[in-house]
Write a structure and sequence with these properties.
single chain, 406 residues, alpha/beta, QueA-like, 2 domains, nine-stranded mixed sheet, six-stranded antiparallel sheet, 10 helices, 22% helix, 29% strand
């Protein structure tokens, strides 16, 4: 069957509101762990995860860190305008943008847009005891978002250096917890909605499969001989974008930016191009590497992976050869880190090239993430979800976990 003709209604299931975990458990690694192994379903607790993994395997984590992406401004009329920053515009590279002092620009979603037709929004921000005025100017439309230019200056003369954009966000931004939690962000979310290994700022949503890991579980992995590597995929707001088309072919996947170190690609080659992925974001990144390697092998300069590339191209290139092509591409350009982007959509019919096992939470009905799970377990997603619903598993971002071994 043509993947584009998959009907999203076939990936629905009843999810009562009381099954959605509104808050995490007090202890991250005490969550339940559903085990799907070659068609058989059972359960355990997350702390036992390392005992189900093969010694010497390579486990890959997404080390992105959620930013305080929601900013609120009031117009002189009293109207509340919410600016949700999504992707850096100027400077366009995430880390350069976060260290910018005095000015930067982002592509943003704007709440109550009709009340902000023109004019500059302002608000006072206090950083390190000094008061600054932050200004926001609405720019051109960019897809479904708007460019917004930000600038800031002290309200009184000061010898203090201008704060960075990261410091401004820390002072006034709000952590964007998922809308389906149906509550406001709380101070505790600043800790619980980050993985313990998060490092690289840029996501507007957490890679939630990683929320269950603690320092103790990571140490257990080491003791059990499980090797660990990290990569970065900045999760965009599109991860919550509902599929509104009847067929998945009518759904546009959002672009996500990735960064993978040369050493990580070399480690994958040492493991014959096979890995255990923590979360769907790691899955999308690892699988995108194969297609980036294919593009590099063909001599392409731009390694962006379009949404339907996996279903419209064929290649006899092995996974390790694709990864070696990426190393050659990086060598030619003297790169230690591969920066690229992907729109890959993984749905039933997809052939996995890198990921052999997956740790993931339980996803929303009729979502692209549920389609990815179905693709990975050869259509047996309903067996897994029926078990979880019947055995009191908690669902979505703060819910329980699963280990999937097809």
């Amino acid at each position: 069957m043509n993947a584009k003709h998959i009907h999203i209604k076939d990936y629905n299931y009843p999810l009562p509101d009381e099954r959605i975990a509104k808050f995490p458990l007090p202890q991250r690694d005490s969550s339940k762990l559903l085990l799907y192994r070659h068609g058989e379903v059972s359960e355990d607790v997350f702390t036992r995860l390392p005992h189900y993994l093969p010694q010497g395997a390579l486990m890959v984590f997404n080390n992105t860190r959620v930013i305080q992406a929601r900013l609120h401004f009031h117009k002189d009329t009293g109207a509340l305008i919410e600016i949700f920053i999504l992707e850096p515009a100027q400077p366009a590279e995430y880390q350069e943008n976060f260290v910018a002092r005095g000015a930067c620009a982002w592509y943003c979603l704007v709440g109550n847009l009709k009340k902000w037709k023109a004019g500059v929004l302002t608000r006072k921000v206090t950083v390190g005891g000094t008061d600054y005025e932050l200004q926001a100017t609405r720019g051109t439309l960019h897809g479904t978002s708007h460019r917004v230019d930000f600038c800031w200056h002290p309200l009184q003369p000061t010898d203090a250096p201008l704060p960075s954009w990261a410091e401004m966000l820390e002072a006034i931004g709000e952590l964007p917890i998922p809308p389906y939690l149906g509550r406001d962000t709380e101070e505790s979310d600043k800790v619980t909605y980050q993985t313990v290994y998060s490092k690289i700022e840029g996501s507007v949503a957490a890679p939630t499969a990683g929320l269950h890991f603690t320092a103790d579980v990571l140490e257990q992995l080491d003791r059990c001989g499980i090797e660990r590597e990290e990569l970065t995929l900045h999760v965009g707001a599109g991860t919550f974008k509902p599929v509104k088309s009847e067929e998945i072919g009518g759904h546009d996947m959002h672009t996500e930016h990735i960064a993978v170190k040369r050493a990580t690609i070399e480690r994958l080659i040492e493991h014959d191009g096979e890995a255990i992925a923590v979360g769907t974001t790691s899955v999308r990144t690892l699988e995108s590497l194969y297609y980036m390697g294919m593009l590099a092998h063909e001599g392409a300069e731009d390694l962006h992976v379009p949404q339907w590339m996996p279903y419209e191209t064929t290649s006899s290139l092995s996974t390790t050869d694709a990864l070696k092509a990426l190393i050659a591409y990086m060598d030619q350009r003297q790169l230690d880190v591969l920066h690229s982007s992907t729109q890959i959509i993984i749905v039933p019919g997809y052939t996995f090239h890198v990921v052999r096992m997956m740790v993931t939470n339980f996803h929303q009905p009729q979502s692209t993430l549920l389609l990815l799970v179905s693709a990975f377990v050869q259509g047996q997603w309903r067996t897994i979800y029926d078990y979880a619903l019947a055995h009191d598993f908690r669902f979505l971002s703060y819910g329980d976990s699963s280990l999937l071994i097809p």
